[in-house]
Every structure is written in C-alpha cells, then in structure tokens.
Amino acid sequence: MFTGLFGPLALCIQAVFARNGNAMRAPIAPIPRIYNDGPVMSRNGTQLPPYSPIILSTPGEGNAEPFTGYLTNGTINGQIAQQQNGSTIVLEHRYYGLSNPVPNLSGKNLRYHTIHQAIEDLVYFANNVDLPQMNGAGLSPATAPWILIGGSYSGALTSWTMVNHPDVFWAGYASSAVVEAILDYWSYFEIIREFMPANCSADIAVVIAYVDEVFSSSDTLTHLDDVAGVRNNLWDWQSLQPETGPGAKFFESCDALEVKNGVNAPATGWGLENALSAWGSFWNSSYIDFLCGEEGVVDCLGTYNPNSTYFTSTALDNADRSWTWIICNEVGFLQEGPPPAGDLSAIVTRIVQPDYDIRQCAYMFSDVFASPADVPTAAGIANVNSAYKGWNISVDRLFFANGQRDPWRASTVSADGVDRPSTETQPIAIGNGFHTSDLLTANGRVDPTVLAVQNEALAYMKIWLAEWTPPSISPKREEPYSRKVNSSRFFKGIVV
C-alpha cells in the first residue's frame, strides 16, 4: 500500500508474505510519523478538518510500485485530496506484485484470486487499517468519508465494490470502468478502427481480408490462428494519450504503411500491394525485434506449445499470469476478430475467435483445467454481470469518466447502444480521451474535454463530501482476527 500527503497522510503499501504465511509490511514510499496528537496543520498553516476524506485506490492488475504518482496531484486522486484536504492511499491488489499469500502462482494457488475476494480486501482494509497519522486507528468509513478510485479493471472494481457494499465508501470515481464482462470482446478493435487514421485502417483491412482468404483456403498450413500476432501493434493504441506525440509506436506502424516517398496516402490508403509489402517490412525490420528481442518468432508469438515458459512459469509478480486467471474465470474480454459471418471491415483476422484464447487458459492452468471445455469463462461472466449489475449499475455518488477513443469503451456505461443517462447521483462524463486519460492531470492540460471531465468530477466530490456528516457515536471496529463469513481471506491478521 502507498499513501500520499495532502492532508494528514500519503501512503503506498504492498502486503508481503513470508514463507511461513506471516504478513510483513513493506512500504514502498516513506511513511510519515505522527509525534503528537494535536491538530494537523497544512503547509500554509491552516488547521485541517478532523474528518478529511481518505482516498483509496488500487492499480488493479499490476505491481503497485510504479504507481506512487497516484499519491500526488499529478492524478485525479491527488487533485481530489488537494481540494478536500484528504489523504491518498494506493493499495496493491492481491496476487500482484509482492502481495501474495502463496509461494507461486499455480492454478490451485489462485483459487482465492477472485473479484469477490478483491472487493472484500478493499472493504476489510478500509474498516480495519490503522493509518500512521493522527487518530489513524479511528478513521474507518464509519468515522470519516472514504472515496474509492480506480481505472479500467480497478475502475470496474470500484463500481462492483460499491454495489456489493453500498455503505462503506461514501463516493467513488470509476475511470474507463469495464463494468460489463464480455466473452467475445471484438469491439475492442472496432473502436480503434473507428478512430485511427482512415488510410491506415483501410490498408490494414485489405491486408487482413487477403490473409483470411488465403489462409481459409489452405489445406496445408497449420496453427492458422497464430496469425493473431498481428494484433500486437494494434494493441499499441491503448498506450496513446492526448499528450502522446507523433513518434508513438502505433503511429510508427501507420507511417510505415501510409508514407511513400514522402507522400501521405489518401483516406482510402495505397491498396493491397503496397500495404502488404510495407506492413511486412515494418514487422521484419523492427517490430519483431521490439516485441521478441532475442526470442525466436515461434516461441514469442506461437501459442501451441503447452510446455513453453509463458504457460508453465508460476513465479510470483507475474501480472500477465494473474490477470489471465481472472480473464479465464470471470471476465473474458477476449480481444478477437469480428464474427466470421458479416461484411464488417476487419483490422484483425476473423480466424481468431474465443476458442483461441480459451485453449490457452487450459495450457496456462493445466493443474485445474484438463481441457478447454473445463474453462468456465462463460459461466463466470454470467455470474459477474448478475452479481455486480454490469451496464445496469445504479449506485449513489459514483462518478463515471470515459473517453471516446478508449478501446474499452464498449464495456463501460458509455458503450454505444447502452442508454445510461447521467444523473446527479451517478454522473457519466465523457471526453475525447483514450483509456483512463482523465486519471492523469497532464492530459487535462492538453485536451480541454479531459479537463472538463476532471473539473466535473472535482465539483461533484466537493458537493458529495459536503453532504457527509460525522456520526455521533463511532461503531466498534471489527477485530483483526474475527471470523466473518464475507471478510477477506487475504488481509486477516495484517497490521498496516
């Protein structure tokens, strides 16, 4: 867990487990010590209110160490803390980074790596943490307003937590929140196609159509779906932000296709002959080395060797493996080509369908899935959407922020065809940003639509926090070792 200081506290913490199972605290950022119990003063000498908000976030599917910036006003977390004299905390998600109660990430050891348990971690932490600040043991959600913030999966986790425990967090901020779990998430690439340069999408589409035609008529080629490797430079779109310059990897690939002898292609592109040659040259000359380094192409991009290290390594701090477990069991989000039938222009091969990725689930977690038929993705998705309401979420004081150019938008409340009105209690703000653009302060400086989303959120947080009133009697805190049916199995006994 990490924390940041605007009001009393800024803290970032990872829960580290020794081999004997005992939890050890390992703060990544220094924890400020409180040497007196007098009023907390800001740097300008102003006395801070006793009920300043506690702003909690988790980076979700990754090691928390690179996310110390989310303790500062370089993010919406810090902007809210600065406006409201609050404290910021970043808490590492179970089974990511160093927060592992198990010695390795085998499938059997991941049985408690679930959305439900992640929700219970956040709730248990909020109710029981003893923060290193004045009255740190008495700042539970019963005695101070807590705000839960997240983006992407952790944005969805914010929504799902507030559905599951509506009385714990006073307010929430969910950026690019993928609230609706979807098995065949081919819309990911459709949003990219819609917003990428028209000449680039046109040329990629003619190449993909040609590849599909050739491969579909072949009786000798095998492992045809491994042509999915060409998805990689399309995934580079997710790294774009409003402040991204023209040298980004995604635009390098488009320049390779669309700039010929110093001349840009028209909106319709140069056509198949040039596009096929230029795209192949881009991959062969630089992009394969960028992706694979010294690893061979088959080992790097192939998916048919169940004994490859990618599938068999159970080492800790492997975010890809931990996230794949959630993909296979609960959320899907399999980023494939469009449905085989239909005339929709495709920038990803139609040969790649959900079975391609579900097969890999069985390879990666062969200790629990004997075959792809045993992978419960569809059932898990149904359970998640039923339990946490998906697009039908309705929670008071939950702010949704989305970006038009976000490839994940189709799983958010701003998805095309999803008629969710913005309300005073559950606002939905959308700008021209990319994935979670609104979380970063810098993006608001270069894109006025992102700034408008951030300012709207700050205004709502000010209103909602003004509505919070401290209780007259503080309820008794839950004992750290008590046995509560719905409590987290992960944070039992952890002293922060």
From TrEMBL:
<dbReference type="GO" id="GO:0008239">
    <property type="term" value="F:dipeptidyl-peptidase activity"/>
</dbReference>
<keyword id="KW-0121">Carboxypeptidase</keyword>
<dbReference type="GO" id="GO:0006508">
    <property type="term" value="P:proteolysis"/>
</dbReference>
<keyword id="KW-0645">Protease</keyword>
<comment type="similarity">
    <text>Belongs to the peptidase S28 family.</text>
</comment>
<keyword id="KW-0378">Hydrolase</keyword>
<dbReference type="GO" id="GO:0004180">
    <property type="term" value="F:carboxypeptidase activity"/>
</dbReference>
<dbReference type="InterPro" id="IPR029058">
    <property type="entry name" value="AB_hydrolase_fold"/>
</dbReference>
<keyword id="KW-0732">Signal</keyword>
<protein>
    <submittedName>
        <fullName>Serine carboxypeptidase S28-domain-containing protein</fullName>
    </submittedName>
</protein>
<dbReference type="InterPro" id="IPR008758">
    <property type="entry name" value="Peptidase_S28"/>
</dbReference>
<dbReference type="GO" id="GO:0070008">
    <property type="term" value="F:serine-type exopeptidase activity"/>
</dbReference>
<keyword id="KW-0325">Glycoprotein</keyword>
<feature type="signal peptide">
    <location>
        <begin position="1"/>
        <end position="18"/>
    </location>
</feature>
<dbReference type="Pfam" id="PF05577">
    <property type="entry name" value="Peptidase_S28"/>
</dbReference>
